[in-house]
Design brief:
Number of domains: 3
CATH class of the largest domain: Alpha Beta
Order of helices and strands: HEHEHEHEHEHEHEHEHEHEHEHEHEHH
CATH architecture of the largest domain: 3-Layer(aba) Sandwich
Distance between the termini: 45 Å
Shape: globular
Strand content: 15-25%
Strand order of the largest sheet: 6-5-7-9-8
Oligomer: single chain
Number of helices: 15
CATH topology of the largest domain: Rossmann fold
Bound molecules: iron/sulfur cluster
CATH superfamily of the largest domain: NadA-like
Helix content: 40-55%
């Protein structure tokens, strides 16, 4: 068992104790408090969520809540940033653990992006390029998009957002998840010969002038290491061993894995895929382990739901009931901790990019 798998087993017992304590405080705060939980949260935390969902869904729910002053976001740091940017001025966004980051966020720094942009704009006019950030990116990367007439996309809106850019004859620069971008490009049929990868770790990238001039899409070479575990070989092997089973994977998986699977898409697509399937059907799911285990339990006796591989997001796993309790205690004591607050210099352009996404997808 890996370290994170061992911790997973151990923590299941400890958390029973903290659940009661969190519940007590939660009751005390009433509608002043809203706990928002992403699907990838461990179950003990997830169960206490006033709202559950994917990152953007949650941010919208938090912002729509007019009574809650404290929004405690149990998810990754970039999600809490988005929540803060969409929340009203008097709402305070907090997290159980500020170190709950994301492997994708870590794969792009603003300076790297600015350097790449500088090279690309030597060969293409800025007004012909549209920067698009995957929602799994830090606020300053989203702000870059807002400053350069770009936008944001989620795993469920990537096709629509890409199509919007292509319809305007713009070259898309998409970051930081190569696979989300590749899968969207395949889906809306951007010719492969016009899609190139910007090698994030190579100074100056590796693209030639001819490639930059021809490109319709440039993909940043990032990926989620937890979704990289779902390999095409694994899907092939499981399908051979279980010919009656179907496979659905998240679109953060590589295109080869997607090609071997029966379905792919966002967390909502995965949830709907299983919910809409016939009773007694058998499934293997390729996304974060906590979400799959929950689906497995919810489908017990109805459908045979299995994980493709045990892949726990160690960032999302940082939030636990003890840390959640500490956050609530800090509110009670009048000294809130773990506040996530994005300054206006970043929030204003980032919000512009988010708003554009909402307009395009509405
Ligand atoms: S599963 Fe991957 S993409 Fe999702 S939050 Fe964790 S590290 Fe980021």
């Amino acid at each position: 068992m890996s370290e994170i798998e061992l911790e997973y087993e151990k923590s299941l017992e400890e958390e029973v104790f903290w659940e009661g304590k969190v519940k007590e405080l939660k009751e005390e705060f009433g509608n002043q408090l809203m706990i928002l939980c992403h699907y990838y949260q461990r179950d003990s935390v997830f169960r206490l969520g006033d709202a559950v969902g994917d990152s953007l869904e949650l941010a919208k729910r938090g912002a729509a809540n007019k009574t809650a002053k404290y929004l405690v976001f149990c998810g990754a740091h970039f999600m809490a940033e988005t929540q803060d940017m969409l929340a009203s001025k008097d709402q305070i966004v907090m997290m159980p653990d500020l170190k709950a980051g994301c492997t994708l966020v870590n794969q792009i720094k603003l300076k790297q992006l600015e350097d790449a942009w500088g090279i690309l704009t030597q060969f293409r006019k800025e007004q012909d390029i549209v920067p698009i950030a995957y929602v799994n990116s830090s606020a300053d990367i989203k702000a870059f998009c807002g400053k350069h007439n770009g936008t944001i996309c989620t795993s469920s809106s990537s096709n629509k957002i890409f199509q919007w850019a292509i319809n305007q004859n713009k070259m898309i620069v998409f970051f930081p998840d190569e696979h989300i971008g590749r899968n969207a490009a395949n889906s809306i049929e951007i010719p492969r010969e016009n899609v190139f990868v910007w090698k994030r770790n190579v100074s100056g990238g590796t693209l030639t002038e001819e490639q930059i001039k021809r490109a319709q899409l440039i993909l940043w070479s990032g990926s989620c290491r937890f979704h990289d575990k779902f390999t095409p070989e694994l899907v092939k092997k499981l399908k051979k061993e279980h010919p009656d089973a179907r496979v659905v994977v998240h679109s953060e998986c590589c295109e080869e894995t997607v090609a071997e699977s029966d379905y792919y898409g966002s967390t909502s697509t995965i949830l709907n895929c299983i919910a809409d399937s016939e009773p007694e059907s058998k499934w293997f799911i390729g996304t974060e382990y906590n979400m799959v285990e929950r689906m497995k339990r919810e489908n017990e006796g109805l459908r045979d739901v299995n994980c493709l591989a045990k892949s726990i997001c160690s960032f999302m796993y940082k939030a636990d009931l003890k840390k959640l309790y500490n956050v609530l205690v800090s509110i009670k004591e009048g000294t809130p901790i773990n506040i996530v607050s994005v300054g206006d210099d970043v929030a204003i352009p980032a919000r512009r990019a988010l708003k554009k996404m909402l307009e395009i997808t509405s």
